[in-house]
Specification:
single chain, globular, disordered N terminus, 13 helices, mainly alpha
Amino acid sequence: MPPVILYQNRAEIGWWLTTFPNPVADFSPPCFTAGVASMQGANRSAVTEFILIGFSAFPRLQLMFFLLFLLMYLFALLGNLLIMTTIWRERSLHTPMYLFLCALSISEILYTLAIIPRMLADLLSTHHTITFTACGSQMFFSFAFGFTHSFLLTVMGYDRYVAICHPLRYNALMSPHGCACLVAWSWIGGSVMGMVVTTAVFHLTFCGPNEIHHFACHMPPLLKLACGKNVAVVVMGVGLVCITVLLGCCLLILLSYAFIVSTVLRIPSAEGRHKAFSTCASHLMVVVVHYGFASVIYLKPKGPHSLEGDTLMGITYTVLTPFLSPIIFSLRNKELKVAMEKTFLSKLYPEKI
């Protein structure tokens, strides 16, 4: 430290400031100066990789989780591929409803592909790091395909509304060109939402801990690692956009079914009412599962909760929903079930068909 010198006039003070404009840097020990510089650099630097905590809290159950999730993933993958193949091979299913179902299966396959293989690999590995770029890519694809899934469910609700409430105008309103446009806009809308959310989140600065308490680059635990003055604004903005879009889709589906129920109840015969409701049953069940699990994760009240609980709850939307969807569509849709038996069982057991 320099000796303390008392200057008698302003001229001497001016000379001192001119000669030593930065007294801390000029007279501080080198280690102190380097420490300050490194702290300032750390505050400006960005995290280059994250650590996915995932199921580390359950070390004895990781092998069981791996086998369970692997079987569910393979079943979901096989079920969706089976639906797509059946629709493609069976000409009687070349209708708007099954075109949307085929697009839904594609989005579900891509959504699970963005998350589950990485999660399965981490369950068998001790190296759980993910690069900054890979984390951003995973978030983009998961949000893009997730929102595409919601948009396609909304379009399928509109399709059922037109088929039941306006059957005479169905061919005009749901023309091949119109259906292709609805599917295309669903994919475009999902991609835009994925880009908006990912860009907003990854423009933040991550300068503190880099441990994500989840098995994927999930937005809520990732935002907890961000620092800076605009974090609260981004959190509020992204949350409002996501909730508004998802609730908007949900309300449109509910509105479609309100008109459907009103129309079906006016059908005089019980058989006619049952037939009309049966065409909507599988779609309605998938909507309940999709939005039910999503609301449990994204709309749960704030309060004390365990990080392990959040991880297990994330499984419901990431693994369980894709697992249940092909089961529901295969078992609850009579036309699809008959077409599957005709397409596949006829080759295995031709004497039974």
